[in-house]
Specification:
Oligomer: single chain
Helix content: 25-40%
Number of strands: 22
Strand order of the largest sheet: 12-18-17-16-15-14-13-20
Structural class: alpha+beta
Strand content: 25-35%
Number of helices: 15
Largest sheet: 8 strands, antiparallel
Shape: globular
Radius of gyration: 24 Å
């Protein structure tokens, strides 16, 4: 990492070397040191509600089968046959009690256990040549679930998922637990953009500053109640645990009046009051802040907004979950889910889905505005001059490092973490500091290689760490 020491130091000062948004060497380090040991979102339990349901998802170059096995347990299995490495499952979703490799016909239960291979006796001498007992598809090194969100980590020594989430769980509940029944999701929609993955994560983490410029037209056509995009500066940015986001400032009123203002019907409000903690309710009812966009490190984001969806002035909220899946240093696959409370009225679900598609679906108005900027940034970061330029990411920070505005006190904001009202790049700095920490820290990867029916464990030392 010696050659990247100056880059890391600049990031810690809030000055961002422009080339990190399109650099193959940086991306190689990200794949190994960041994505190789972070918790990565892969699916929601509502996508595999019944025994045998499965979806196939990727974590960078690795394909995983996310399945609910015959006992009802959620499994995450590396999608590679133990014989000659063919993908066992080539459908993106479905229902199956078994998976059969199309190459040589080895078959596996939906919990990963091998149950059959053709000509076992003739080809292997039966159990004496290949013992099936105990052989399984390679499981994800670590699996965790929070509020129905399924995460895996490629690091077998990863900290527990809830420890990784930290205080961001407080805010995650607003998006994923509006009643005791939790979420149901639709999707994901998937599309690719010629942009670096970090840009979307940073944007959703805390960039309220771009709204008055990038999204002016969306506001001026009357899609939202707020008459000017500049209203974003009245909200706050917060960072807690491993994630952070933005809020809108709501008009005066009670908790119920404020939730009605963003379009929630009374029956959903009553379930929120029963489900959220007093502190979570206080952020809205007492402090007057409503959660908006957010990012969970490293590459998962959320949207909560409430546009007009009909001919009246009534608004209706929607929630979107998205993943910035890196393809390369200059290409990202966006996975976008629509999310809604399971107990929401059917009419609400239908209109909420319409609002999602209009704003943040693959052809949504906000989506088109944002991607134009991100592609331009990525393209420009590829040139030689980008290696000479440090982008100023110090908004909200004075020259001596102190904040332009002081953080909100506990009587002003009931949520955990640190929150500031107004424009600032506090959250982008937090996210990039996490990024710098992981890129800077050498790793020793635990590897497990199956040999027949035995397992051999050994340690691969990080080559750079050894230098």
């Amino acid at each position: 990492m010696a050659e990247h020491a100056d880059l890391i130091e600049a990031v810690r000062q809030g000055m961002i070397p422009a080339h990190i948004y399109n650099d193959s060497d940086v991306f190689k380090l990200e794949k190994e040191r960041l994505f190789g040991r972070s918790w990565m979102f892969v699916a929601h339990e509502s996508e595999v509600p019944d025994t045998g349901d499965y979806v196939v998802r990727r974590v960078l170059d690795d394909s995983f089968i996310i399945a609910r096995d015959s006992s009802g347990e959620v499994r995450a299995m590396f999608n590679m046959c133990l014989h000659r490495g063919m993908q066992v499952c080539r459908a993106e979703m479905g229902n199956a009690s078994h998976f059969r490799c199309p190459y040589h016909g080895w078959s596996y239960r939906n919990d990963g256990r091998i149950v059959g291979l053709p000509f076992h006796k003739e080809a292997y001498g039966g159990e004496e040549g290949f013992t099936k007992n105990g052989q399984t598809l390679l499981p994800a090194p670590s699996l965790g679930i929070y509020n129905g969100l399924i995460f895996i980590s490629l690091d077998p020594e990863a900290p527990p998922l809830e420890e990784f989430l930290g205080d961001f769980k407080f805010y995650l509940d607003y998006y994923t637990r509006q009643s005791s029944s939790g979420l149901e999701v639709r999707g994901p929609q998937r599309w690719r953009i010629k942009a670096n993955w970090k840009i979307g994560a940073e944007n959703f983490a805390g960039d309220m500053y771009h709204t008055p410029q990038t999204h002016t037209s969306v506001v001026e056509i009357g899609l939202f109640r707020e008459p000017k995009a500049e209203k974003r500066k009245d909200g706050n940015t917060y960072w807690a645990g491993n994630g952070g986001g933005t809020t809108y400032k709501l008009p005066p009123g009670t908790l119920e009046e404020r939730l009605r203002y963003v379009g929630y019907p009374d029956e959903m409000i009553e379930r929120m009051k029963e489900t959220w903690s007093p502190e979570q309710l206080a952020v809205i009812g007492d402090n007057g802040f409503m959660i908006s966009a957010a990012s969970l490190y490293p590459n998962m984001s959320f949207v909560h907004n409430w546009p007009k969806v009909g001919d009246s002035d009534d608004v209706l909220p929607f929630i979107s979950i998205r993943l910035w899946q890196p393809i390369s240093e200059n290409e990202t696959e966006v996975l976008s889910w629509f999310a809604v409370d399971k107990e929401a009225p059917e009419e609400f679900k239908a209109l909420s889905y319409k609002a999602y598609l209009m704003c943040f679906g693959s052809t949504g108005m906000f989506e088109q505005d944002d991607v134009e900027n991100w592609v331009s940034l990525t393209n420009t970061a590829a040139g030689s001059m980008a290696h000479r330029l440090q982008l100023n990411g110090r908004m909200g920070m004075l020259l001596d490092g102190s904040p332009v505005v002081q953080p909100l006190g506990p009587d002003e904001f009931a949520g955990p973490g640190v929150a500031h009202v107004g424009y600032g790049e506090y959250n982008q700095r937090h996210l990039l500091n996490r990024w710098a920490d992981m890129l800077e820290a050498p790793i020793a990867r635990a590897a497990n290689v199956a040999v027949g029916s035995a397992s051999v464990n050994y340690e691969i030392k990080d080559e750079e760490a050894a230098k």
